[in-house]
Specification:
The chain has helices at 2-12, 17-24, 28-35, 44-54, 58-63, 78-89, 94-110. The chain is mainly alpha-helical and 111 residues long.
Amino acid sequence: MIGERVKKYRKDAGMSLTELADRAGVAKSYLSALERNIQTNPSIQFLEKIAQVLKVNMDQLLNDQSSGSDNSYNQLDDEWQSLVKEAMESGVSKEEFKEFLEFNKWKIQQK
């Protein structure tokens, strides 16, 4: 949950709850409720303030991009990014790429 990630990044940064609330300009009580999962739907503006102070991006707060778990499907490595860029620049459309994926799935099932 978002609150657990905020707490993790806050502790990793060596900040107290009060320090983070003060630096971000948010209510300490709301931050505390978020970290305890009492508040579960913070505003984007609130999260932006927190992320800026913690020096993490919004994806990390929302999707836990930097945890030790395997989130490789969420982030493309350099080689995949290059391949995607090359495909786009060569004129491959999303529809053509989707058709290729469907064909490849079908081909695998035929084995």
